[in-house]
Design brief:
alpha+beta, 2 helices, 3 strands, elongated
Length: 80
């Protein structure tokens, strides 16, 4: 299968291009989440098993090493 012209470079994994992609998100450091995804050329299905959790959950690492997060929180609290 030929790659679309907008795709640059070879596949990182070699071999033929797949007809679908399966993805998952479970844990980022101490932040627990459970999302699954299946993507084809025509469809994208995302299943969020924990919709009650915020997408940007508290995380000690990001709170410490990404100062932009505090700026975003301050602006959100100010209604901006």
């Amino acid at each position: 299968m030929a790659l679309p012209p907008r795709i640059e470079g070879p596949s990182l994994f070699g071999g033929p291009v797949s007809d679908y992609v399966i993805a998952a998100r479970d844990r980022c450091d101490e932040t627990i989440d459970r999302i699954r995804c299946v993507r084809t050329r025509r469809y994208k299905y995302i299943r969020n098993f924990m919709p009650e959790r915020l997408y940007l959950q508290p995380n000690k690492y990001t709170e410490t090493y990404y100062p932009i997060l505090q700026l975003l929180k301050d602006r959100a609290a100010a209604g901006r």
